[in-house]
From TrEMBL:
<feature type="domain" description="Heterokaryon incompatibility">
    <location>
        <begin position="45"/>
        <end position="148"/>
    </location>
</feature>
<dbReference type="Pfam" id="PF06985">
    <property type="entry name" value="HET"/>
</dbReference>
<dbReference type="InterPro" id="IPR010730">
    <property type="entry name" value="HET"/>
</dbReference>
<protein>
    <submittedName>
        <fullName>HET-domain-containing protein</fullName>
    </submittedName>
</protein>
<dbReference type="InterPro" id="IPR052895">
    <property type="entry name" value="HetReg/Transcr_Mod"/>
</dbReference>
């Protein structure tokens, strides 16, 4: 995780790469920081709300982060790393990467460093504002089963 500037109310936003046409591939997200104080941020992202599920069941996604670099020719350095997320988040990202016309989103488990209490506490405090400024909130209950079916009955 790259640090967030709390004085600017920075959050992390995900750009979800579309599904490749020829083969299923790992979910790939590009992570970038954005400030809730920026005037255009409400039109920028949607929030993903989902059932976390069993935290012991995880899947890998590819996370890419681009930052300024004086040593690179184009002034940017992109790093890619494998990141473990719970299986329900990976499934939600996999489904929405091809269905959304705006694949820019915020998802708490990935956009907040859950193992850093100094970051997590202020970010949780911003969640109402994060959801309020989003252009949409997408809810995924998981794959259809007897439990999720009753929600819609």
């Amino acid at each position: 995780y790259r640090p967030l500037d709390s004085s600017r109310k920075e959050i992390r936003i995900l750009y979800l790469e579309p599904e490749p046409l020829h083969s299923p591939k790992d979910v790939v997200v590009h992570v970038f920081n954005a400030s809730l104080l920026e005037p255009n941020i409400p039109r920028l992202y949607g929030c993903l709300s989902y059932y976390w599920g069993d935290p012991k069941i995880t899947k890998a996604i590819q996370v890419m982060y681009t930052e300024k670099s004086e040593s690179e020719n184009n002034g940017l350095l992109t790093t890619q790393t494998e990141f473990r997320v719970n299986a329900n988040l990976e499934a939600a990202l996999r489904v929405f990467r091809s269905k959304l016309n705006r694949p820019v989103m915020w998802a708490d488990a990935l956009c907040i460093n859950q193992s850093d209490i100094d970051e997590r506490s202020p970010q949780v405090g911003l969640m109402a504002e994060i959801y309020a400024q989003a252009v949409q909130t997408i809810v995924r209950l998981g794959d259809a089963d007897g439990t999720t079916k009753t929600v819609f009955d």
